[in-house]
Amino acid sequence: MRGVFFLVGPTAAGKSELGAEVARRLDAEIVSADAFQIYRGFDLLTAKPDADTLAKVPHHLVDIAPISEAMNAEKFRKLALRQIGEVHSRQKRVIVVGGSGLYIKALTHGLSVVPAADPDLRAQLNELSLADLQKRLRNLDPKTSVDLKNRRRVVRAIEICLLSGKSASEQRDGWQKGLLNQGVFVFRERDDLSQRINQRVEKMFDAGVIEEVRAAGALGDTASKMIGLREIRDLLAGEISISQCIVKIQQATRRYAKRQLTWFRRQTNFKPLNLSLLSHNEAVKRISQLAKSFGVALGND
């Protein structure tokens, strides 16, 4: 990861604008690490960088994949490493900007080799109640950080424990010992971030996100998980009002931001930076200086 600097954080924190300014200062290019902005279309729903931001420096892995294509961390890693290599071949540096935690981890430390699902074991586990699954996982992995309300993830974590003989927490602890730290984790105070999320969702509707969803074709499994998609489809089906739809998307986005914050605090060693305490220009300066300290810059400020 030489010549690569990471700028990560929750949705609506302001990463895209900061990343573009920092990259412009450092004569670098941006590689996006966003699970949904990688898809073509849905510019509003996925809050892709606007035209002015995209024009400041070259952006990669934005708007490149069809919405029917399944995407995962392994596939993203291959695409990103290839793109980073191309940027480096032009004697440019890379700023990786994004909020998809597993995609960031795939780049910084690769992906853990875990056993494939066992159909017979999966069937046995699926017969258990969620409460029984939670109890079993706690016994197998007392330090688990899995979302215990997510049945699919609980089942998968139990599978990994039983099939590998090693808990996910043990694997994570081993990974954390060698955490890469050439990056910055930006965040905002809770009220500040919530206000930005609420305003962004309202702007999405003003800009025509309903028509964007109405015009969409068939989606693959990954793209179908975009925040707001289900709510807007419920709106189009007449099941909820537009005001209810907006509130539901705002709530879902805030919950997602909370999960992102938890991930980056636990799973990275990047320098934290509270954007609520800084102006945009101050934040750009701080991040640029930090990037330079890792040898990411090509020239002077």
How would you describe what is shown here?
The structure is a single chain. The protein is α/β, with parallel strands linked by helices. It folds into 2 domains: 4-111 and 188-293, 3-Layer(aba) Sandwich (Rossmann fold), CATH 3.40.50.300; 119-176, Histone, subunit A (Orthogonal Bundle). Helices cover 52% and strands 9% of the residues. It is built from 13 helices and 6 strands. Strand 2, helix 2 and strand 3 (59-60) form a beta-alpha-beta unit. The protein is globular. The two termini are 22 Å apart. The mean pLDDT is 90.
- Give a quick account of the main beta sheet: strands, pairing sense, barrel closure: 6 strands, parallel
Biggest sheet, spatial arrangement of strands:
3-2-4-1-5-6
Radius of gyration, taken over Cα atoms and rounded to an integer in Å: 20 Å
CATH topology of the largest domain: Rossmann fold
* Mean pLDDT figure: 90
How many structurally independent domains? 2
Under the CATH scheme, which architecture of the largest domain would be assigned? 3-Layer(aba) Sandwich
Return the string of H and E elements.
Answer: EHEHEHEHHHHHEHHHHEH
Q: Based on DSSP secondary structure assignment, what is the total number of beta strands?
A: 6
Query: Roughly what percent helix?
Result: 40-55%
The structure class reads: alpha/beta
CATH superfamily of the largest domain: P-loop containing nucleotide triphosphate hydrolases
| Name of the CATH class of the largest domain | Alpha Beta
Instruction: Tell me, briefly, the overall form.
Output: globular
Portion in strands:
5-15%
Task: Report how far apart the termini are.
Answer: 22 Å
User: Low-confidence runs (pLDDT<50, min 5 residues)?
Assistant: none
Number of helices: 13
